[in-house]
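Dear colleague,

Thank you for sharing your sequence with our group. We've completed the structure prediction you requested, and as agreed, I am returning the results in plain text so they can be pasted directly into your records. Please verify that the sequence below matches your submission; if there's any discrepancy, let me know and we will rerun it promptly.
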Amino acid sequence: MDFVHDQLALGTKLRILTIVDIHSRFCPAADPRLTYRGEDVVRTLEQVCAQFGYPKTIRVDNGSEFISRDLDLWAYANDVTLDFSRPGKPTDNGFIEAFNSKLRSECLNAHWFMSLADAREKLEDWRRHYNEDRPHSAIGYKVPFTLHYPGDAASPSP
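Please find the predicted structure tokens below.
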């Protein structure tokens, strides 16, 4: 889990919470907001976990949203271990850094976001393409959806 920073067309800062499963490379959420607090991270995680289940571990950096009491209590209550990367060591979380690079080059650099709603729509379109259509060399040129949902299951709605 990490954040990518961008901005709307009129200059308003945009923060995007990105979540990626390191095994399948499946991205259950790329959630844009103007600001993020610990309780917002928890809200997004609750939506993701209600749909996909709770992970055993979440790797995060030391951003204030991730070291918040809200996230710590949520993790404790749901038996989820928070695995913090070492300060100043983005390579500790290389999977999310690689994902964020793809997100930036394939989506953020390719679109203007006119509003938060427009950003949500374009990010969701890209996230679905990333999960369902785009082969990944790291997983044998398969799409993440096939490893996350073996068989021909229909794509879950966000």
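Summary note from our side: The longest helix spans residues 116-132.

Kind regards,
the structure core
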